[in-house]
Design a protein that fits this description.
This protein is mainly beta and about 240 residues long. About 15% of the residues lie in helices and about 50% in strands. The protein contains three helices and ten strands; from the N terminus they run αβαββββββαβββ. The chain has helices at about 1-20, 35-45, 140-145, and strands at about 20-30, 50, 55-65, 70-80, 90-110, 115, 120-130, 150-170, 175-190, 215-225. Strands 1, 2, 3, 4, 5, 6, 7, 8, 9 and 10 form a ten-stranded mixed β-sheet that branches. Strand 5 and strand 6 (about 115) form a beta hairpin.
Length: about 240
Amino acid sequence: MSVTLFTCAQAQTDTTVHIFKSGMAVYAEFGLLPNNKNIRTELSRLNIKPFTSFMGSIVLARRTESERWFSEGRIIIMNSTNYTKDKDDKKAYLNGFGIGTDGGPKLVNSTRWNVLIPIGADLMLYRLKIKNNGSATISQVVQNPSSFQPIKLFTGNINLHAGIGADYKMNVMPKLYDKVYLSGKATYHLPILGKRKWKGEDVTISDLSSLKLNQIYVQLGLVFFPKPGPKKWGKMH
């Protein structure tokens, strides 16, 4: 009886593993922030060099898929700053961190291509950091340390996204990986919590424009599916 139950459980596990496969993905994600002209203008008026309109992110994801569906859990590390080397100028740096998920059907699943409809949501926290970038003597810093400390403001939102994606199935590194995809997506992101005010450690900023995040993002990266390991259970005698 016990042997029969074990055999059934093992067969069910093998079937599940066969239906769903898991792998890891690394993406570069790019977008523009053209809707944030107001906040950039306000920073410039205060003699603060604003962050650029270009946004770049590194996305680490865990991909799970079947013949007809896919899903991903995501960690997003975002950066939008100016890379100039000007000294003695105040600069604004915009960064973000978040977690999210997306998934959807596969419209096409051939020997070479997947065509996907990704739909999901990301929970994001953004930081606006204003740095002095100036030079000073040690006595100036000691006598007036607050003048040389960076200003850090935070805001957050939940971004829904949907779009279209494609995987190109490459036959590379077959000794290490079962499958490797070159994967790309284009998605539109829409924040759902409305306009969020910037907040400091113990203050809410009343007159700085909120961060507008609705835009199109383009994502490109690699998905790796490792070869299945040896079975945990051997044959019963």
